[in-house]
């Protein structure tokens, strides 16, 4: 059976299930026909997303439109999310990231950091960890960071004389992905999916997840992820002879970039200013979305970004997809699905969400298992978050912590299909750096380290009054 036929069959099954749920199943006690329509479209949409029947954003738009056509939810409620601050900070953040990539600022930062470290496996893998962590909050999109960082790692690997898909080559690939991608859990602005998961929460819980709070909440996790991750990759992949060689490759790359351009300087100032204003959001009383849009406007006025850049450098399909996913949280509550799901799932989920120590161990394991079936990172996170939303009033900790646990736990790459950004990073180097075995080993290591990192965070969360 071809992939095309598989998608067609999945699509038919999804549509049939949706029709049966919406129009033929008896309406359970406590639900309305509107709730059944929303439940039906959610089932259909997830089948479409899992099997990529049509582009994800198109599935999302069809879901919202179906609510309106079947008169389950008014248009104003179905599409209300597109006028929220969360959507606009995603747009603004992606635009700032596009400027950083376009001007070469991100590449310059990466190579500059690498020039300070020994030109061997341990030195350059550490440099990739550090440069990636510094760059992570500047670009809220995983795929551009993956596509940019792995060719840098390949250049270093070639300069150090490592054979393709050798242990050392695999290690440098993973160091790039670890630094630039895995550390997205450390910063709210490091990926648009963080904003999407945050946007699923009721407004009063979203307020806990400001840029500064997120950063403070994740400091212990970040330290554990970086330190333990560095030693994990060194243990698994460091070559026997790790003698430093010439830094010629890195110096050549820096020389080719030339002096810092005016546009790079303007972009650097804009991003630094935006991050500072995000940290001080509650003090200066300027919403994060407004901050992002102001600095994007300045970049456009300074001609760093053009109208064409907004067409070609912004992933509008991703933005629309995230918006449609975020709409689910409010709509499920409006039609009564949230309360109904709480009653249905309480025997299973109740014991998990009653204690934060149990939650940070059990929830990641559940998410790891779900990833074998649901490929999309954001779809997995959305499913888990939506399943837990009915229990927000019964949690023994702030529901904001669910977003933290979800966003760190969806990033697994045990099997190649589980993680699209890893596929992007691999494609950027023609699948010529990391072996499948190395990916699996490092993913198992990350899965364990992630849980340890979350456990170490719990005392800090207690001190902050959220656990």
TrEMBL record:
Membrane topology (UniProt): Multi-pass membrane protein
GO molecular function, one term: transmembrane transporter activity
GO cellular component: membrane
Membrane-spanning segments: 7-27, 47-70, 79-101, 121-139, 172-192, 212-237, 318-336, 356-389, 401-423, 443-464
Keyword hit for Transmembrane helix: yes
Cross-referenced InterPro entries: CitT-rel, SLC13A/DASS
Keyword Plastid: no
Alphabetically ordered keywords of this record: Membrane, Transmembrane, Transmembrane helix
Pfam families: Na_sulph_symp
Domain of life according to the entry: Bacteria
Compartment annotation: Membrane
Protein family (similarity comment): Belongs to the SLC13A/DASS transporter (TC 2.A.47) family. DIT1 subfamily.
Protein name: 2-oxoglutarate translocator
Organism: Secundilactobacillus pentosiphilus
